[in-house]
Design a protein that fits this description.
The protein is α+β, with helices and mostly antiparallel strands. The chain contains five helices and seven strands; from the N terminus they run βααββββββααα.
Amino acid sequence: MDVQGAGIEREYRSRKRSPRAVFLAPALLGLESVYRMAHGHLMPRWAWAPFLALWVLVLARTVLYSWRGRTLVGVRGITVRRAVTERSLTWRDVYDIRAEPVPRAKPPARTCLTYMYDTGGRRFLLPHLDDWQLTDPAAEVAALREAAARHRGMAFERRPETEALIRRASGHRKAWERAVTGGLVAFGGGFLLWVALLFTTDHPPTLLLFLWIPLGTFAALAALLNWRWESQVPAAP
């Protein structure tokens, strides 16, 4: 919804059809993985059943988000409506609104997302204020900031103390993301080792390879990377 010439009352929701490949490819890949796990007898039932539940939950959330998710802007502030939750901030609590590029993203994926930051440095994604629904998200955000400044009673200005909070939150967020990635890599490596052990032993350590090693990897990385959160984000200019 491109409303740069309108007033402060705005609604950003899904109006343009999103690229089908972005949704179909992960959905079909997940379905194929579940089918092979269930019928290939390569993994114990307790290992693939949670994967099926997770796949169903992710698919349901995606559908709900595309139907219900939106960003509502008014004279009082901004309301972010997600798949099942809703969060509102008054203009007094809004620190900044920023259109940010998605690292290493290429079309048809979204390459630009818009985030709202509160005065405590917390970040909130603004649904559908992106390059799937808008031709120029950065220009739309600039117009929104200009219109919002009149209702805030002051312009958007950067404050060192809030920027430090934003950087800290970003460092911890990246730490958790990389810890999850490390856990998934450990799970994948454990699966390959488990398949190899099927040919050399009658009782491969299934629980160890599928549960304890991935959990231990995740916990160790999460503790280390959160402790060294400054290394996860570049220093402030």
